Amino acid sequence: MSEIPGFILDAFAALMLLVAAVSAGRLALDRPWRRGVMDADVDGVHVLMGIAMAGMLVARLSTLSNGVWTVIFAVTTAWFAWFVYRESRGGGARVLVHSHHAPHLVHSAAMVYMFAAITAPAAGHGSGMAGMGGAGGGMSTLAVPVLAFIFAILLAGYAVLDLDRLSGPAPHGSHLAAVAVAPAGAAVAGAAAGSGTLGPGTASAAAVRPEGGIATLPEQAASPARSAGAPGRGGGSVRDLLLNPRTAAGCRIAMGVTMAFMLVIMI
Amino acid sequence: MSDIAVSRGRATWRARLGASGESTWQLPDARRALQLALAAIWLLDAVLQYQSFMFTKGFGQMLAGTAAGNPSVIAGPINWDARLVEHHAVLINSIFATIQLLIAVGIAWRPTVRAALAASILWSLGVWWFGEGLGMVLTSSASPVNGAPGAVIIYALLAVLLWPSGRYAATARFVAARAVGGTAARILWLLLWGSLAYFALLPGNRTAQGLSGMVGGMAAGQPGWLAGLDNHAASLLAHQGLAASIVLAMALVLIAVGVYLPAPAARATLVLAIVVAALIWIFGEAFGAIMAGGATDPNSGPLLILLALSYWPLGKLATASAPVTPTAGAEPGHEEVKA
Predict the structure, then answer these.
(1) Where are the domains of chain B?
(2) Residue B264's Cα: distance from chain center in Å?
(3) Which H or E element spans position A119?
(4) Which residues pair with A118 in a beta bridge?
(5) A236-255 residues touching B, CB cutoff 8 A
(6) Which residue of chain A has the CA closest to B6?
């Protein structure tokens, strides 16, 4: 029988459902079907991952079968692999550290591995992926545990990198910044139209940052004023919070830590 | 608004396909990179602490096992702690795991790096005593191959050496010297690796089958390929305990004095340190026995590698990572790098 207390699995499952809800909220507020917002795919995948992981953690939250989830995440893995490949053509191996898509590729690949390699609890009677702890049964385990180990290390690495970037003076050029490029583009357009989106503060920031270009913009764009930068879109605090790139990064950190937790306890 | 939306969409996809994070991304400076590596290891420790075994009485019994061979003044508190853990396994282990998670997050989160490193020192010292029996250094069973002087004490050492202080930045020739100065950092290195050489020559490790038995014993419960590696290494070391211990001790002594040598020779000994640590991690520690389940940390191998990197002469390491422009009120953990 699984010895991991239920409240811990429940807490992680609740966290994953929260991530799924936040990501769904981001999708709804940003209306990607209208404007092709950059991270619609990431948010969409986070919704799927949140639901899938919650189902793995707590049997009663289980939705689809292992096979279906495996196919879904195989597709998302291929999707992010394509972007990482495109990015790597100019950046080489460094893309694994600074690419916007590399962490999502690792997350998706880890999901494929988990659903493909999970084995039924030895003493359990849970159905399929119905909970890692088994519904009153033994603990599910993963085949090829070395992959679980490698994925756990990668996920831990990306999580601490994200935390570092989130807490830094201004994430520029990183995948956090890439998230913020979209509103930055809006800011540029707003400035060009005389809307005053690019204020004096931003201008001075641009002046002291030799990197120039998009590197200066995320400093402004990554602020909670993301949505406020687009005239006429309102500026409710919940909306600001949901659409803030830091919220997306927080979701990614929570996802990565929970995934590492799941991988390790199923070794 | 539609113009803005169009611009936004174009910028979005341009960024996605080409420019995102390409030219402006700056790697953390050398010390921050090492701090983040330490944070990642703490995070790995935290999730390992959530394994099902840790919530059973077996965890308490495992702690009690470290009392064996230690003087009573050391063993007594270990046994008391082990009984406490046995009786309140769920509560105490939940606290343990959460503390380690907070340490990891705290080190990775720049404003809290000092507090988290300080907490990690205190926590490591406690675990070194109550969880590792002082790394068994007071017993006859300590060996660098099985993790002596205790992985967790190296966490504390790293926290001290990677402390975000620029006190000695002007004269520091390697990252570890920036917080405590070159002299103190070299002494700490000499003590650590010198002690490893001493442990390698303890009577128990010099016996004909000492190292062989230790390495072969790690194969149990491991995946087939790793068990095969361990068994093969054990058969190579069979009846070679004395010779292998002497060779290992000589390598460790060379590593210990290496930081006093000129930069090119120091780099060579640091490479040797990394290779020895990697061999210990693979063959002696089986990657911390993580894949066998029930491990609480990845053991000393990766920490020794991290430590060696913190002594790497800065000319090389600092230029490998983009220096961070000094700014007024530089944030903790991210001060300037001066090569």
Answers:
(1) 27-320
(2) 25
(3) strand A118-119
(4) A142
(5) none
(6) A35
